[in-house]
Amino acid sequence: MALLVAQRRFVKKGVGGACLKIDMEKFDPIKNFKEEEQGTFWDEYSKNFISIEAAQSTKSLLRGEIRLCGDFLRSSDRSNKGKILKLDLWNEAHHTAILTYIHHFYDEVHAIDISPDVVRQALKKLEEKNIKVKAVIGDMRKMPYPDNSFDYVYTMGTIEHIPRPQDAMEEIFRVLKPGGRAVIGVPNKYEWFGKSLILDFFALTGIKEDGYEHSYGWRQFTRELEDSGLRVLRKTGAYFMPWFIRAADWFLAQRLPKAAIVLWPFIKFSDYLSNSNFFLKHGSVVVAVVEKPHHAR
Q1: Partners of 23 in beta bridges
Q2: Is the pLDDT of residue 35 over 90?
Q3: DSSP-derived 3-state class of residue 35
Q4: pLDDT of residue 2
Q5: Nearest to 26 by CA among 201, 204, 280, 219
Q6: Cα angle, residue 292 at apex, residues 278 and 161 outer, rounded to 5°
Q7: 5 vs 231, residue with greater confidence
Q8: CB of 166 within 8 A of CB of 224?
Q9: What's the pLDDT score for residue 80?
Q10: Mean pLDDT of the chain
Q11: Phi and psi of 181, rounded to 5°?
């Protein structure tokens, strides 16, 4: 979710120097199938985004992400830690920067993002911390990796931004090794406080500048994952926090950081509730831990 009031239109050079015009007010990422236009949209959005890495609610989400990777995407064999692929580098550029905290779990860390600006910003920050990530600019719907390439795949709050999220699920299945695992997080359609309805309204009115996004209930999410060939091992969540607390903290972090302290008691209580998987499963992000069956190819 991204809350920005300003609306912009811009013209940007496309691949090969071609002139590519995107109307930021009308562009809808979940309806536009064109890879180049998708990349341009997220490129420009990234350049104008104010980081929320320091927000307390972001730190709550980060703790949940570290827990998910540590519990489900980590080898017990320290001599063979395996290869992980992360879909998108937005977090490393602007948000939870999860790879900073989990890179040592793996022998190799790979990442793909459709936005050149996001990749540039993320790699710059990672290099400053001496963290090696093999990143490519590309589309998660047709990733430039051979079949059976990775032991693990991680994606949180990403695949809902493309027209057909199941395309990404099918690609995750393809690039995972047999027996490989993935953690996939998407917005919860039935979040108790009506987040999906509010975000649709924000997208309609232009407040949510990154446009509409897909959201899922557990039944639909499970069905699409299984139809993609993946086996669901666990249903959980990243954290539990009412959307309006998260949104308020996001807004203040970008505009009045010192004032965000008034939200800390509510965030701490949400952190307490996040210790229960019951609340995690009904939070704003539903997370499935999945496996590519050993017999699959």
Answers
A1: 9
A2: no
A3: helix
A4: 34
A5: 204
A6: 65
A7: 231
A8: yes
A9: 84
A10: 89
A11: -120, 155
Amino acid at 252: L
Q: Which domains, ranges and CATH numbers included, belong to the chain?
A: 9-53+76-232+286-291 (3.40.50.150)
Distance in angstroms (rounded) separating the CA atoms of residues 211 and 290: 28
More reliable by pLDDT, 226 or 24: 226
Q: How far apart are CA 290 and CA 226, in angstroms?
A: 9
Phi/psi for 122 (5° steps) reads -65, -45
What is the average per-residue pLDDT within 138-156?
Answer: 97
* Pairing of the two strands 231-237 and 176-187: unpaired
- Who wins on pLDDT, 15 or 212? 212
The residue whose two tokens read 């540590």 is: 70
Amino acid type, 189: K
- 33-59 as b/e, with b when 16 or more CB fall inside 10 Å? eeeebbbbbbbbbbeebeebbebbbbe
Helices 218-227 and 165-175 pack at an angle, to 10 degrees, of 50
Of the candidates 50, 24, 56, which has an alpha carbon nearest to the alpha carbon of residue 37?
Answer: 24
Tokens 């609610």 sit on residue? 57
Residue 269, pLDDT above cutoff 60: yes
Nearest partner of 34 among 163, 185, 157, 136, judged by Cα: 163
126 neighbors 133 (Cβ within 8 angstroms): yes
* Spatial distance between the Cα atoms of 53 and 270, rounded to a whole number of angstroms: 18
Residue 130 CA to residue 128 CA, distance in Å, equals: 6
Question: Which residue has better confidence, 28 or 56?
Answer: 56
What are 205-224's pLDDT values in tens digits? 877 777 789 999 999 999 99
pLDDT for 26 equals: 65
Our measurement of the distance from residue 54's CA atom to the centroid of its chain's CA atoms, rounded to an integer in Å, reads: 17
